[in-house]
Design a protein that fits this description.
Blueprint: H1 4-11, E1 17-21, E2 24-28, H2 30-33, E3 38-43, H3 56-70, E4 78-79, E5 88-90, E6 112-115, E7 122-126, E8 130-136, E9 141-147, H4 149-153, H5 156-168, E10 176-179, H6 192-197, E11 203-204, E12 207-208, H7 210-220, E13 228-230, H8 245-248, E14 255-261
Parallel strand pairs: 4-7, 5-6, 10-13
Antiparallel strand pairs: 1-2, 2-3, 3-14, 6-9, 7-14, 8-9, 8-10, 11-12
The chain binds zinc ion.
Length: about 260
């Protein structure tokens, strides 16, 4: 049995940093922290924060506690439905709190969101999918998306970039993008048909590399290589710390990715 704390210390790199408050452990990204523009977090086990697998009261209680620690109003959490496609919603003040209390309240049929409104916390819930955090420190705008194989194939990451360009005038070369913990090329075996859909790119035998596919997508949209930070933490390898749909079987719990522009 590997000691969880030891694993966490080993996982501590210049790309990620662990925080623990009131018994809740979550990750933050130093590249985002040093901008002082956002509040952000990626949670860990045992908190299952997506509606659906356990009683709603428990989820709301846990979400409230995480938000309390981060200094975020949990009634303002703003989520998309998450349907494994690549629609991106532009979140304004009027969308604040959609999906905070019920799954039905989430913004329908979207897998990504962008916003330039302060203090509207964007959230999404993942187990093995790649959570992508976007920050344009120049225009003060953010984006959040997730990409499993379907979202990656549908160019979810690129769609967030182009939506930020279109809506906020973001220049891709200014963007900072973080790839959070998700299933790595070490563990992500897929069927031949999926390898074929990717035209045998980003794969080694049956193993698909979602990290590389998303990095490539971001580069092709003009994001600079040095501004793409892959946390390189595999949820399946570190299944004692994170939920992994592959490792746990379906349905499993979901971590919460949260990103919010601070008030200036
Ligand atoms: Zn792995």
């Amino acid at each position: 049995m590997v000691n969880v704390l030891e694993v966490e210390e080993k996982m501590e790199t210049e790309k990620i940093s662990w925080r623990e408050r009131e018994g809740i452990k979550y990750l933050v990204f130093p590249r985002f922290e040093e901008t002082d523009l956002v509040i952000h977090a990626f949670t860990s086990r045992p908190l299952d924060l997506r509606f659906g697998r356990r009683p709603r009261e428990g989820i709301l209680r846990d979400r409230r506690q995480v938000c309390h620690i981060l200094g975020v109003n949990f009634l303002c959490l703003t989520a998309g439905e998450q349907v494994h496609r690549a629609e991106v919603s532009t979140v304004g003040r009027e969308d604040e709190g959609r999906g905070a209390l019920t799954q039905e309240g989430a913004i329908p049929e979207v897998d990504g969101s962008v916003s330039d409104v302060s203090e509207v916390p964007l959230v999404l819930f993942t187990a093995d999918c790649v959570p992508l955090f976007f920050l344009d420190p120049v225009k003060r705008a953010i984006g959040l998306a997730h990409a499993g194989w379907r979202g990656t194939l549908a160019r979810a990451a690129g769609k967030v970039v182009s939506q930020m360009e279109e809506v906020y005038g973001t220049r891709p070369e200014d963007l900072l993008v973080i790839l959070g913990p998700s299933i790595g090329p070490c563990c992500y075996e897929v069927g031949e048909e999926i390898i074929n859909l990717f035209h045998h790119r980003f794969s080694d035998g049956r193993r698909l590399n979602l990290w590389e596919a998303n990095r490539e997508e971001l580069l092709s949209e003009g994001v600079k290589d040095e501004n793409i930070v892959n946390s390189e933490i595999c949820t399946s390898c570190h299944n004692d710390i994170f939920f992994s749909e592959r490792r746990d079987g379906s349905p499993t719990g979901r971590m919460m990715a949260l990103l919010m522009l601070s008030s200036n």
